[in-house]
Amino acid sequence: MALVFCLALAQPLQAQDLTGLALSGNSRDIPGFNLNGAPGLIEMPSAAMAPDATLSGSLSRIGGITRSTITFQITPRLSGSFRYAALDGLTRLGGQPLPGLDGQTYYDRSFDLRYQVLREGRYRPAVTIGLQDFAGTSLYGAEYIVASKSLTPQLRVTGGLGWGRLGTRNPFASTGARPTDLLEQGGVPSYDRWFRGDMAAFGGVEWAVNDRLTLKAEYSSDAFSEEVSNGLLSSKTAWNIGVDYRIAEGVQASVVALQGTTIGAQITLHTNPRSTGVPGGTETAPAPVYRRTAPERRDLGWQQDSGQKDSLPAQLAQALNRERLVMDGLTLSADRATLRLVNPVYASEPQAIGRSARIMSRILPGSIETFVIVPVVNGMAMSAITLRRSDLENLENAPASALLDVTRITAAPDTARDPAQGTTPALTWSFGPNLRYSLFDPDSPVRADLLATARADLRLAPGLILSGTASKRLAGNLDSIGRRDASALPRVRTDYALYAREGDPSIDHLTLTHYMRPGRDLYARVSAGYLEQMYAGLSAELLWKPVDSRLALGIEVNQVRQRDFNQLFGLRDYEVTTGHVSAYYDLGQGFHGQLDIGRYLAGDVGATFSLDREFANGWRLGVFATLTDVSPEDFGEGSFDKGFRITVPIGHVLGQPSRRQGNLTVRPLTRDGGARLDLRDRLYEQVRDYHRPELEKKWGRVWR
């Protein structure tokens, strides 16, 4: 069953290609999810975990409360959730009136973490410890220890102890004083509350009638004090009952009776990036490897035949074009061929390498035994993949790992800097619809514009590219953003409402970029122009990345001025020097870390830490947090910049190879602290794809 994130979670005013991001997954082993969007009974948690890498989205409505939650199974034992709740008609919170809200909808953001301490055994229950709303306002703040055990294949029981909200109904003990006030700024882990205060018991039972239908009953330890006091719910009993129904693979519908007074419903959608497969599948089959005869291997006559020799580059370029690959240069000797290859289509880089090698075996003379394929990105040689032609002939039907064992991946040779017979197109362009989002505006949590967007890249010389993007709004409501919160910092991002209102049409970016290889293992970029929607200026970057290393180091310096709100050619007075030193490291097992230390757009100084889980098929999910010398009070609501991001390969949607991606960045709130330039051409992501650690992960596609 395919699901679609119709409302993609994107950074405000950041254009994304998000239309039709189809998601699918196998839900047979996924436990039931509760109304908090995590494995559980009805409101209460269970000790169950979803299969590793499961990504789930849920939407529930109970009384005057709407909750939307995204949950990711980070590792087999650890999961995390982001929840966004809308409470209708709120007048008081924590016993205090809400000035200015006047009974309107109150929006709350919260994060959860769950860790399974014990897996279920023959006699032992599964045991999980959880933190709920551990870094928000604490409206939903709670902690719990819960155990679950299957008594029969159909019957499962759960019992646990809860603190915070889960300790508000019939507490039987206390573990110390717990602050009860709501945190105005939110965003900071509330250590002083964890597992403190009143403690209460909860529990329940699940009965699977069949593979699709599950009945549930639970005793809740949550008294819903805030909701009851505001008239959003009423409560007659601690017992809740519910029904889960699996409509199809990856889709769970739930109906519940809560507190004996309220009927609620939820829809939960699941996918698993780990098992969605590699994007593509409708592309034509690759050409078979040509097997040389013994005389062909010895024949060197082609070197004396100038007509045949001169025609080889054009023949190879034409054959590669049929595979949607581009020859940027070709160097030939009696037994060796070096191909400079541009891959505009295949997200799995070994697939492009494998198809190129097959074509080379069919076009090039039989005496050429060694193929060196040099991937080129923006005029920069990334690496050198050296294959023996006889290995291609002998291992075509063997596992891909057998070919990897005899393939050398090394630094690109110096001779690769001088292309010959290149066929890289000078101009590439595209035009089509685009979606732009603004999230978590306190007056309306989701706003969107539909735009017509044109993009073009003009290659003026090897490594020198003039690039631009322009958009025209077709429909939407981003221009209706009316609220402009106070800021103690320069308004480097919080004026996004003005950019949305006045930027129609807009020049999203217009830059001249020079890419260079200043030395071995070094890559450089200099960009000038309108760098992004809000800033123009000069940007320079240097990256050190050995071809076989998991570690990369970089430095970036930018001198920028703020652009006019209409996003055309004018500039405003605000000017800043910003930059970072960065360390990137492949941690293994699909995890990738990044640390950036430097100066941000508002002049604040600090560091950003990012951790992503990446999959060979192109999916990526990660979290990030930025701490600078800006105090939580000056930063404002949220206390510091943080969020999560999801990358979806567009080829997964199209069913054919594509290097395009849908990048969704979710920030609970956009503020001015910890803000970086939104550059489109940073080096690391361009370089790493053709280095050994990444090629090894995707090498299974080399024969596709």
Descriptive report:
By secondary structure, this protein is mainly beta. It has three domains: 30-273, monomeric porin ompg (Porin, Beta Barrel); 294-423, GMP Synthetase, Chain A, domain 3 (2-Layer Sandwich), CATH 3.30.300; 438-694, Porin (Beta Barrel), CATH 2.40.160. 12% of the residues lie in helices and 44% in strands. The protein is built from eleven helices and 37 strands. A 14-stranded antiparallel β-sheet has the order 2-25-26-27-28-29-30-31-32-33-34-35-36-37. Strands 4-5-6-9-10-11-12-14-15-16-17-18 form a twelve-stranded antiparallel barrel. A hairpin with a 2-residue loop joins strand 25 and strand 26. Helix 3 (306-322) packs antiparallel against helix 4. It starts with a strand and ends in a 6-residue tail after the last helix. Mean pLDDT is 88; it is low at 1-27 and 416-420.
